[in-house]
Design goal:
It is built from seven helices and 16 strands. By secondary structure, the chain is of the alpha/beta class. The strands form five sheets. Strands 1, 2, 3, 4, 5 and 8 form a six-stranded mixed β-sheet that branches. Strands 9-16-10-15 form a four-stranded mixed β-sheet. Strand 2 and strand 3 form a beta hairpin. The longest helix has 17 residues. The chain is globular and about 60 Å long.
Length: 239
């Protein structure tokens, strides 16, 4: 099974462009790290068509990208994140009897998939399939990685994949075996009807070497390639 999630990239206007030369305008972009590669291609093509525009992009986890604006007060023209719900949650602020927004609009324009990324050197690489991936990742000797769910949308979607797998495979131990038992403090999970609420501590640490956490999903790739982990929860575009 491959768990599927809508992956919505958002385009929104935060502030006006700033001229750095009489004949060129700089557009500053802060983006989810998972979008850096396609944005490089877009930037190259756009600047050929519009040589008067200089696009400058930096990447972070989606939540970190927004906080560059809301917490650090950095000026960006575009914010691109991997979860559309983050925009109203974090960039629309209610101030007493008025709304003081960092932005007031956004445009969903793409979707993605959640996948399990691995290499030919990963443990059980010759055995894993779309039908048994959950059993492979639950093995004690398999090391897995995901991005920090407090900073990056891919991270909390990794937790969603593990939680949804319990219902899909009718195994209530999968989340704990894959992730929950290997974090300190452990997440608190409450099931109510068809809904599941996963509450995380403010600071999340791995317990032991079963799981590894990085600030953004793209930073797992070097760890995976070096053999530090066997499997990584990733967006398909990143994998």
């Amino acid at each position: 099974m491959r768990a599927l999630f809508l992956f919505t990239i958002l385009l929104l206007l935060v502030s006006g462009c700033t001229e750095v030369q009489p004949d060129q305008v700089t557009v500053r972009v802060v983006s989810a790290g998972s979008m850096l590669l396609p944005l490089e291609e877009i930037e190259e093509a756009y600047e050929i068509l519009h040589p008067e525009i200089d696009i400058q992009t930096e990447g972070h986890g989606s939540i970190q990208a927004i906080r560059q604006v809301t917490d650090l007060n950095r000026q960006f023209d575009l914010v691109i994140v991997a979860d559309q719900s983050l925009i109203p949650d974090m960039m629309y602020r209610q101030m007493s009897d008025r709304v003081d927004n960092y932005t007031n609009w956004f445009v969903p324009f793409a979707t993605n998939h959640m996948v399990i990324a691995y290499t030919d050197r990963s443990a059980y690489a010759d055995e894993i399939t779309s039908g048994n991936w959950h059993l492979i990742l639950s093995k004690p000797d398999v090391h897995i990685g995901f991005s920090n769910p407090m900073l990056d949308a891919c991270g909390y979607r990794a937790l969603m994949v593990a939680s949804l797998a319990e219902g899909y495979y009718n195994n209530d131990l999968l989340f704990e075996q894959m992730i929950g038992d290997h974090l300190t403090p452990q997440p608190v999970i409450v099931h109510t009807g068809d809904s599941t609420l996963i509450t995380l501590p403010e600071i999340l640490h791995p317990s032991g070497d079963k799981v590894s956490i990085r600030s953004g999903s793209i930073y797992l790739l070097a760890l995976l390639d070096a053999g530090g982990i066997d499997y990584a929860f990733e967006y398909e575009s990143v994998a």
